[in-house]
TrEMBL record:
Keywords: Membrane, Transmembrane, Transmembrane helix. It comes from Astatotilapia calliptera. Residues 36-147, 152-260, 259-372 form the C-type lectin domain. CDD domains: CLECT. The chain crosses the membrane at residues 15-34. This is C-type lectin domain-containing protein. InterPro entries: C-type_lectin-like, C-type_lectin-like/link_sf, CTDL_fold. Gene3D superfamilies: Mannose-Binding Protein A, subunit A (3.10.100.10). It comes from the Eukaryota.
Amino acid sequence: MTEKSFSCDRATMQWSLFLLLLMGQCVFITCQLYEYHFIKEEMSWDEARAYCREKYTDLAKVFDLTDMRRLQDSAQNQTQAWIGLYSEPGRDNRRWHWSLPGEEYTENKTCWGDTEPNDGAYPENCVMTSMAWIDFPCTHTFQFICYNETMKNNKTFHLTETSVTWTQAQSYCRQHHTDLASGLDQIYSEEFKKLKNSTASWIGLFRDSWRWSDGSNFSFRYWDSFNDGLNNRTCATTLLGRSGRWSSAGCDQRKPFFCYDDKLILIRENKTWEKALNYCRQTHHDLVSISNPHQQRWVQERAKNASTPFVWLGLQYSCTLDLWFWVNDNLVCFDRWALGGKTEDCGMSAAMTTGGQWVSQRENETFNFICIKH
């Protein structure tokens, strides 16, 4: 499969797709859903946030390693720059997160051991599992379980018996697989249960007091070493000369910074699929198309705020051609269909649940929808 980045004008995409299909390739014609902007002028973190909110959307947020590569590509050889992550210190300000982007933590007492999480050797911000979950200091060493996901949603798990810290385990899993095992669907899966033994193993659950400037709940962290953020208010920088990993600094220090400009917009009006498509094309650019897991995660983050159980995507079924196609003329080489959610029939288009899965819906149904802006 090949991913090409072209301009988003319709004529360019159609011609590029035609040429690449002649070569027999499954092709993604990619329009960026957001843009990063590097600002050389040095400001405090709060001044940088005010600048980004005036000129763009906000200080940069980072969803996964794909975003980190994009930040580095636009950094212009600087050594440090602010991003939109800050810590409000305090024991009670910490929240649990899963390491894998897109997985949300929900309280489930049945997973925890008796009296856990107890935060006994404060701070105990990382979780290992044997017979049950136990919180531990992230600097302790255990074996760990990685999760691997392919483009076609095939999922496997890998146990590494070498004992390392939680941050080292996360880094290894991201380099060699996808991430540390994360989310209840993974933890409860038969594949995970078969792999897990009674020996203590890190999983991808952690807590911290860090927040994103725009209020999103992105859980991705890329620290040089685990950063508890438990003392004075601090803000995050990316260390551009050291593989882009993050450190923290006093928010009043003056540094260059990254802004981001969001190209996605959730329209909380209920429209049929065709009216949603026309609205996006007349008012913005188009109904959103998704060509890879990275885009899927950004779109499903936006879908969580919908006022309807589904949001329309720019994906339609053609009775004439007997196939699904995106309104930007991409073929469907990546998908996230819910089990039993795909119905190939005339008058069907795809919508996303607030949990991120795709389902077929009649085009005369009315839902919220997501547009890509110019």
